[in-house]
Design goal:
The complex is a heterotrimer of chains A (about 675), B (about 100) and C (about 120).
Chain A (H helix, E strand, L loop, with lengths): L2 H30 L5 H19 L3 H18 L7 H23 L6 H13 L17 E11 L10 H9 L3 E7 L18 E11 H7 L7 E10 L15 H18 L10 H22 L11 H25 L1 E3 L1 H4 L2 H12 L3 E6 L4 E3 H22 L3 H6 L6 E10 L2 E8 L6 H10 L11 H6 L22 H10 L3 E7 L3 E9 L4 E9 L2 E6 L3 E5 L6 E3 L5 E5 L2 E7 H5 L12 E7 L2 E7 L1 E9 L3 H4 L6 E6 L5 E5 L1 H13 L1
Parallel strand pairs in A: 6-8, 13-22, 17-19
Antiparallel strand pairs in A: 1-3, 1-4, 2-3, 5-7, 8-9, 9-11, 10-11, 12-13, 12-20, 14-18, 15-16, 16-17, 18-19, 21-22
Helix pairs in contact in A: 1-2, 1-4, 1-8, 2-3, 3-4, 3-5, 4-5, 9-10, 12-13, 13-17
Chain B lengths: L3 E5 L2 E5 L3 E2 L4 H11 L4 E6 L4 E2 L1 H17 L2 E7 L1 H9 L15
Parallel strand pairs in B: 2-4, 3-5, 4-6
Antiparallel strand pairs in B: 1-2
Chain C lengths: L2 E5 L3 H13 L3 E5 L2 H10 L4 E5 L7 H10 L8 E5 L4 H10 L3 E4 L4 H12 L1
Parallel strand pairs in C: 1-2, 1-3, 3-4, 4-5
Helix pairs in contact in C: 2-3
The chains are: A alpha+beta (about 675), B alpha/beta (about 100), C alpha/beta (about 120).
Amino acid sequence: MSKTGLAQFQQVFIEESLEGLDTMESSLLALDNGGDAELVHTIFRAAHSIKGGAATFGFPEMSSFTHEAESLLDEVRGGKRAIDGAIIELLLRTVDCLRAMFARAQAGEPLNDAVAEALRNELAAAMGRGAPVAGVQARREVDQADAWTVRFRPHAGMLAGGNEPLRLIRELAGLGELTVKTELDRLPATLAALEPTECHLGWTIELKGPARRADIAAVFDWVEDECDLAIEAKHIVAEVASPVATPATPAAPAANVADAGAVRAQREASAESSSVRVSIDKIDGLINLVGELVITQSMLDTFRGGEVDASRLAMLEHGLAQLARHTRELQESVMGIRMLPIASVFNRFPRMVRDISQKLGKQVKLDLVGEQTELDKTVLEKIGDPMVHLVRNAIDHGLETPEKRRAAGKQDTGTLTLAASHRGGSIVVEVSDDGAGLNRDAIVSKAVQRGLIASAEGMSDEAVAELIFQPGFSTAAVTTDLSGRGVGMDVVRRNVSDLGGTVTIRSTQGKGSVFTITLPLTLAIIDGLTAAVGEERYIVPLVSIVESVQLKADAVRSVAGGGELFRFRGEYLPVIRLHDAFGCDTAVQAIDEGLMVVVEGDGARMGLFVDGLIGQQQAVVKSLEANYRRVQGISGATILADGSVALIVDIAGLVRLQGRRKAA
Amino acid sequence: MGGRTKGKGEARVIALPADFRLASTADVKASLADALGASAAELDGAAVERVDSAALQLLLVFRREAAARGLALAWSGVSVAMREAADVLGLSQVLELPASMPA
Amino acid sequence: MAKILAVDDSASMRGMVAFTLRGAGHDVSEAENGQLALDAARGGSFDLVLADVNMPVMDGISMVRELRTMPAYKGVPILMLTTESHTDKKMEGKAAGATGWLVKPFDPEQLLATVKRVLG
């Protein structure tokens, strides 16, 4: 077989092994939470497949490593060993270690390291034996002769099991010259007494030619339990003290070494995040749509050239309406290809929650809801970090220790829920806990100490809660090594807003907190309002619009330093005139002739002054960076129905821009 | 696919199937058992392409019982595959395969 | 050329086996677990079945046991692809009716040699 032939399966093996490790991990965690025995089988199967494949596909280090874990699991599976926390812990670390080994395999680095070596010894020790001793010499058969007698009497059931004496004797003939004598003593005398699928024959075979006992025995290796076999040396050549033939060294390692280069090239070629796995259903849906599109197109084709007869006008209209519908459906389906279930992000949390809660001495039950909710692939890749922070935060600051919970009349075990769902045109991801909730007093005193506010007089609970999203905020009396990693809630909000989403908090003291992340369905299409500014058109993302108001000329006041403010629901909001920000001539200047669009981004509100709003539309986002260059305050561009280009306003970016101007 | 039998006077001809292996032995056994009632029988193994020890064992038992019952038995055809298998298993003599016969 | 059924839940292992055997001119069908293999076996007469031991839905040992109850599969060679270095799995497979085994890891040459051996 060609090397590339084998290499193509090596890559598949790595991918399926990583999936297998995920399965092992989630099953181990479920087992830790009192799951059933079937989980042990699942874990065993995963370990077993990795072990088997690893050796076949050129990773013997991984194979022998997994072997230890598998042996341990085999004892658990066979009921010889009870599974306990210590074993689960050990196996979880094995999963981690194997993941690291696969990563090194992908990078073409040596697979073993000190951690792997130590863990392997630990596994071996857990099995009640020391590290495997390398190079134990197997005792060799030195039995050799140049004439043998083989007595072979199959048991009745051997034939049905697929072992054919014809094959065995032919194989034996490969070792030397045979004289075959059939023994018929067990043969029934009548047809009626014969069960034709059973074997009633026996053979005595004389073999002439130099052969080792082991070679003869090897012929019968599959049937040793299905026959009576006697191998007798008739003429012994010599008793040889030294091994006659070197035992066959497995040919596999050499072949694998040769293949390593090819595999590596293959691995490098497959860039990790530039591909997406698409279900056959989705592809079939697309093919269907394209088929319908072709039919509609050929129907419309009949109108080409000739004049349209009035009687056929209805048909033309129908065709065009169909075209519009198919185009929309096709757009949705194509976008759907980028959508993947959030389960891949959720799945990393059971392990993390377990580790963190153990470390903090808290008892936490993790509930996952809506794992099948689909998200845009890019969003999926980037939502992990903010969620990790929210989860760490919930366990560290939100959920209480069992003692405190008991004192508060709650169950010892706290509940942490990750829930994903579609709501309207958005994805909503919630991280909620039934812990202590936000402590208003602690937040206020910290905010005052930090100089974020002078006092909390008149501030609503909501406004106080918002303070935790301010840069550098932390309420923990002691900064733990878990959430105190220099990353605050401000970064969570920044990350989410980079994805075009928002994050909010709802909290009830003593009852718990809910962090809600709202994300657009996809990054590639946004819902927006088209705004006119002079000759230009801008798209304002719908998610960031609070409302739009027509103001009287005197509602906007200039302030020292050149800025403008207007009063909106008891707050003074800064005004950004889009024609100033982006340099558009011929735009409306007078406040009472234009429109103020109140927007929110990065937790701050402001007014965008535009000439007017033209309408709502879905915009396919094109990267400005890829086609031109990055522009502050603009997140991308789209092409309007008339073919002209409209820029998409980046609200969070404008807010930051505004903040910098203010500071300057 | 059992061996077909057809009357030829009193001599029954049993045509052995091309795939004469374990899975077909039950059918062939029924044909052979049927032929035991005749006074003479011919075994036609010309069409046999694949054969195993279960099949040859069946023929062996048939021949022995036929001989015990005084049935006149002859070969009307033996394929190469069949002869070769019988040789390997050391059964050519007891099956009384003809020394040479066109397949 | 023989009709061979390759049964393994691992796509890489199954792929490697099928690829190798097709390269040698065999007609290979694939199945992901024991249950699917039984369905395939009912639909076609295979000369040889190669099956993994540990598989979800239906493991290889149960599959062999089921196959051997089907008259058409009495005597048909079934090899277990096993990593078990202990003899108990091999023996369990044999007791269920397997013909023999091929110990993983194996390379394509070893696979072909074993298949050739069992097909005679």
